[in-house]
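[job 0412] stage=complex_fold ligand=magnesium ion status=START
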Amino acid sequence: MQRVTAEIFAPSKHAFGLALGVQPVIVCRSNRLANAMTTVSSSVSSLITSLGEIPPETVIFGHSETMQSLRERMDKVASANVPVLIQGESGTGKDIIARMIHARSPWRTGPFVKVNCPAIPGTLLESELFGYEKGAFTGAYGSKPGRVELAHRGSLFLDEISELDLALQSKLLQLLQDGQFCRIGAQEDKKVEVRVVCATNRRLEEEIETGTFRQDLFYRINVVNLHLPPLRERRGDIEDLVAYFLEYYNRKYNCRARALSLDLMSALQKYHWPGNIRELENLIKRYVILGNEEVISSDLVGREQEFFNPDINLDGPISLKKLTRQATRELERKVILKVLQAHHWNRKQTARALSISYRALLYKIRDSGLPANRSKRRPEVIAGQVAAAD
Ligand SMILES: Nc1ncnc2c1ncn2[C@@H]1O[C@H](COP(=O)(O)OP(=O)(O)OP(=O)(O)O)[C@@H](O)[C@H]1O
Ligand SMILES: [Mg+2]
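[job 0412] stage=complex_fold status=DONE, emitting structure tokens
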């Protein structure tokens, strides 16, 4: 069974703040599309999830100057129908920003179609995105619109855009240039009006240099760039975020976890947050559920030891040996992850590429906390987070 990889919704008046449990609606203004969508309703329905709650703006943007200017940029760009590229480390809130852009765009009453590119196998991605005609390939018993088409007069959110292969990148380029695309097996191009929002936690400039991302596509999607800072660069917002998550999860789980002690707050302020706001949220969620600060404190200490923290504390004793060991470990983890990704998570090929034995690779994957296979390679897992019960 394929993982849920796309969400389609049209925001209602509940879109912000009260959206929990809202049933998503597909809004479609063209009859032709509406008919087409009816024929695929069963497959699409499996892709629909509820919108989920978006935190209040004061929490999302906090106090830092970077976030304030980001908010201004976002407000301006939302009303203009131009492509937007959202960049930032995993867990910094790219998803939230993409939804906010849609909710403020001229097509806010249209569909918001999210495509989680890495979650769809490369071979299926083209048909998922652009659709197909009957008989286009073995098993194509009927025609099916792709998500590009379903996003007509709405927003198409391409999450982790760097995962598109070069052939799909050129199809996307055509879509961005003239709004045209072609279903697999179709004789003619179709036209859609769609606002494209892309997100990535990679540096696309580097992907261009290595030849895995088209430069012309980069210019097309990067008309406006919104860069979300990592949490360690907006430490001033940690306290408010903690208060928000505490209140939220106390309410959600009907718990009464108390405000954090000053010691723990100060530990949170010092921690380097590789998993960013998602990591902080999960930590507070665990605290609310377990109601015990000690679990969180010892967890933090463990994480500090596990990951290399480049913010070297000059106030205490410095162990060069320990720092070097941590840095080497972190570098090894990054290299293995990159090579695994390059080989589509094929561990035999990865071991060959790294000139180590298959067994050694398996050991290193386990040792570095990387997920064992592609389906689990969510960045928050890679960042070593322990997801709390939900
Ligand atoms: N500014 C914020 N205020 C409050 N909560 C936030 C904020 N940013 C992110 N979160 C929360 O952190 C979690 C991760 O956010 P989100 O999914 O938007 O991150 P992302 O950048 O898309 O991560 P990834 O690259 O892993 O997909 C979500 O549960 C979200 O609600
Ligand atoms: Mg995301």
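Residues 1-6, 10-51, 376-390 have pLDDT under 50 and may be disordered.
[job 0412] exit 0
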